Automatic annotation (TrEMBL):
Extent of the signal sequence: none
Keywords from the named record: Sigma factor, Transcription, Transcription regulation
UniProt similarity note: Belongs to the sigma-70 factor family. ECF subfamily.
Family annotation (InterPro entries): DUF6596 (IPR046531), RNA_pol_sigma70_r2 (IPR007627), RNA_pol_sigma70_r4_t2 (IPR013249), RNA_pol_sigma_r2 (IPR013325), RNA_pol_sigma_r3/r4-like (IPR013324), WH-like_DNA-bd_sf (IPR036388)
Organism per entry: Planomonospora corallina
Segments forming domain RNA polymerase sigma factor 70 region 4 type: 121-169
Residue ranges constituting the RNA polymerase sigma-70 region domain according to the UniProt record: 19-82
All residue ranges annotated as the DUF6596 domain in the record: 187-287
SUPFAM superfamilies recorded: Sigma2 domain of RNA polymerase sigma factors, Sigma3 and sigma4 domains of RNA polymerase sigma factors
Superkingdom of the source species: Bacteria
Name of the featured protein: RNA polymerase sigma factor
Length: 424
């Protein structure tokens, strides 16, 4: 790590901040049981680092330095505030009962209570949007404006979500702890879903000028890595990380130089990240070994089949359909049914896939989003039913959220309309 002196010091501090913030905050929350207080003194510790490290150098154990500074600020603040006097006394009694705080490890890390914070941020009592916002704020270390930008909402709106989540934690007395063995199977899916929601928004933005938000997807992968390290025996944690890596490996080929969409069948697979694919494929094996598969492990296996194929034509579509059958039994949803129908179309032809899509026409969750109509347009196109394809593309165009998606659908619509006119 750089020594923190000179012009590059700010970058060194920022790198430490990104790496240490989640652990720092989790350790403070575990000690003081107050998320607001923990955030305030963590920020003060970072400010102190910015003041001291450029001249004195980044400490050998920067995490321990930040934790010690933040704890001192918290205790000073509690002592000055009479409203907190009783709480401080309770905390001191609890600390005495618990024994001394474990020292930082030789590598400079903090006692790692991030796992507690994962489950607190993803508690089922919190609204889904609030879980995502709180996870990004507390565990990814993003500022409130950064979280707001990630989801294209005003900072004030995102601040309200975060405040609402913290208030719910206080009022509902949500504990800062890892669930017990009897609770864990029911709670872990909430944590995984939050991380997957963050990744999905990064992989396929819901709106805006860009198809992908690479930074957001990478934050989700970073958090998934942390969770997998903290829970190495949980196969679905491995499955989720594998899925993210295998999908994110294609990021460089998914858009052209102008930011436009490049479909899977047209992508230059030489631009796929082979190192990431290799890592993800290894995690798939871990996710599927030793018991019944979970939904993330199965999805990762599907992604691995795509990534390992030389092209779309030689992709193992029968195996992909079989895996979608397994996934539909584990976690049935209209989206799974849609993706299975597309895979069936690749295996058995567009008419077979279209028949399955037509069976889903009454699903309001599908009809409210553009992939369903876009998939119908594609299959109708392949069947030479260009007038119907144009109508489907037109419907999808009205629902698409990002400009690259709209541009792609406009091109498909224009081509279908031209072919329909030529046929007339």
């Amino acid at each position: 790590m750089p020594d923190g002196r000179g012009p590059g010091a700010g970058g060194a501090v920022e790198a430490v901040f990104r790496e240490e913030y989640g652990r720092l905050l989790a350790s403070l929350v575990s000690r003081f049981r107050d998320l607001d207080l923990a955030e305030e003194v963590a920020s003060e510790a970072i400010e102190a680092a910015l003041a001291h490290w450029p001249a004195e150098g980044v400490p050998a154990r920067p995490g321990a330095w930040l934790l010690t500074t933040a704890r001192r600020r918290a205790v000073d603040r509690l002592r000055r505030d009479q409203a907190y006097a009783a709480r401080l006394a309770v905390l001191q009694v609890e600390a005495e009962r618990a024994g001394p705080v474990p020292p930082p490890d030789p590598g400079g890390g903090l006692p790692d209570e991030r796992l507690q914070l994962f489950f607190t941020c993803a508690h089922p009592a919190l609204a889904a949007d609030d879980r995502v916002a709180l996870t990004l704020r507390c565990l990814a270390g993003l500022t409130t404006p950064e979280v707001a930008r990630a989801f294209l909402v005003p900072p004030a709106t995102m601040a309200q979500r975060i405040v609402r989540a913290k208030k719910k934690i206080r009022q509902a007395r949500i504990p800062f702890r890892v669930p017990g063995a009897d609770e864990l199977p029911g709670r872990l899916p909430e944590v995984l879903q939050v991380l997957y929601s963050i990744f999905t928004e990064g992989y396929a933005a819901s709106s805006g000028a860009d198809l992908q938000r690479t930074g957001l997807a990478e934050e989700a992968i970073r958090l998934a890595r942390i969770l997998h390290r903290l829970m190495p025996a949980e196969r679905e944690a491995a499955g989720l990380l594998a899925l993210m890596l295998l999908v994110h490996a294609r990021r460089g080929a998914r858009t052209g130089p102008d930011g436009g969409i490049v479909l899977l069948q047209e992508q230059d697979r030489g631009r796929w990240d082979r190192e990431m694919i290799e890592e993800g494929s290894g995690l798939v094996v871990a996710a599927l070994r030793g018991g019944p598969p979970g939904p993330y492990g199965v999805q990762a296996a599907i992604a691995a089949l795509h990534d390992e194929a030389a092209d779309v034509e030689t992709t193992d579509w029968p195996q992909i359909v079989a895996l979608y059958d397994v996934l539909a039994a584990l976690a049935p949803s209209p989206v799974v049914a849609l993706n299975r129908a597309v895979a069936v179309a690749m295996r058995d032809g567009p008419a077979a896939g279209l028949a399955l899509l037509d069976e889903l026409a009454g699903e309001p969750r599908l009809r409210a989003h553009h992939p369903y109509a876009a998939a119908r347009g594609e299959l109708l196109d392949r069947l030479g039913r260009f007038g119907e394809a144009a109508a489907a593309y037109r419907e999808a165009l009205g629902l698409a959220g990002t400009e690259p998606e709209r541009a792609h659908l406009r091109r498909r619509l224009e081509a279908a309309e031209q072919q329909a006119a030529d046929g007339a």
